[in-house]
Amino acid sequence: xxxxxxxxxxxxxxxxxxxxxxxxxxxxxxxxxxxxxxxxxxxxxxxxxxxxxxxxxxxxxxxxxxxxxxxxxxxxxxxxxxxxxxxxxxxxxxxxxxxxxxxxxxxxxxxxxxxxxxxxxxxxxxxxxxx
Amino acid sequence: xxxxxxxxxxxxxxxxxxxxxxxxxxxxxxxxxxxxxxxxxxxxxxxxxxxxxxxxxxxxxxxxxxxxxxxxxxxxxxxxxxxxxxxxxxxxxxxxxxxxxxxxxxxxxxxxxxxxxxxxxxxxxxxxxxxxxxxxxxxxxxxxxxxxxxxxxxxxxxxxxxxxxxxxxxxxxxxxxxxxxxxxxxxxxxxxxxxxxxxxxxxxxxxxxxxxxxxxxxxxxxxxxxxxxxxxxxxxxxxxxxxxxxxxxxxxxxxxxxxxxxxxxxxxxxxxxxxxxxxxxxxxxxxxxxxxxxxxxxxxxxxxx
Lengths: 131, 305
Fold this sequence. Notes:
The complex is a heterodimer. Chain A is mainly alpha-helical.
């Protein structure tokens, strides 16, 4: 069983925070196929959010095929989220570290680097939408 | 589960309450579907307590109509059995224990669930055999809420229940409240007044905003957040923007305009940066707009350019 956190100041809608925490727990192996998620009542009693927020999060995870609701029993993990093969993160991390060194050498500070990354992500998102 | 769309849990039409010289509530029309947790917000003196007292049958309106679960609020046992009301000053007898109060409740209420009080307080480690005057403020609030829920109300009206509590006690109180709503399977409707917008943003899925005795906003919080945006841009004539959309609140410096806008469609003007609005910004924007009706004030802002 996992426990949730909801940060009111993060700017991410509470239901999405719950979705992200389940996905993260699945990627990290904290949750596995067949495990039960906390009931709506357990979640709202612990983190004091609206019951519909939890329902919406669980429905989203169900639509993704990650969990399934079993009548009268609760919500259970169906499968792990599809992810890149092992080693991908560290390989990309190494090339990103090289890029960050280049950026620092070019005189960019952390704030400029983060802002450039956000802008680039957004630009590539909208390219995909257009394409 | 009862269909939420048919009969709203709470509905008012043109509700008005006048005292001799003061109008506490003016032409108030709100609709809250069943199963919602509705935030009631607004400046002090905006009429929040008046509205809650009328809905609970404790005060009578001087005009308009209110309906709870399809019936008018009144002082009769059948109506009162459906309503839980928790006033600002927590109504407990300080020298009696929670167990004593469970006994009183059993005498006074037809559908009394005393066992639920013991199990709720047990979960929180609150003793039922100690005089409630000797409990902490947070524990007393929990006792009062557990007793109110033991009536098995279908509409729960709470007047600033967490104002005096520390952050942990507030979180636990709201946890008890949301768990009760989850337990009810969509049949318990809550209206909750508070100034703590951060709490309300987590807990509530509906919003009623009162200012200057009038309703400024009423609706599903997700819908309200989706239809409002913050527009930031260089200061300029906003009359075209104001024709296409509703400018709720404008903050203008010599160079910059920061506008809270209720959208009627997409914003076409590329001169504005468009940002999502938080519940707090929305509430502050409408409270700042104040005055009846909101747009009159905004015209005035437009004119002082």
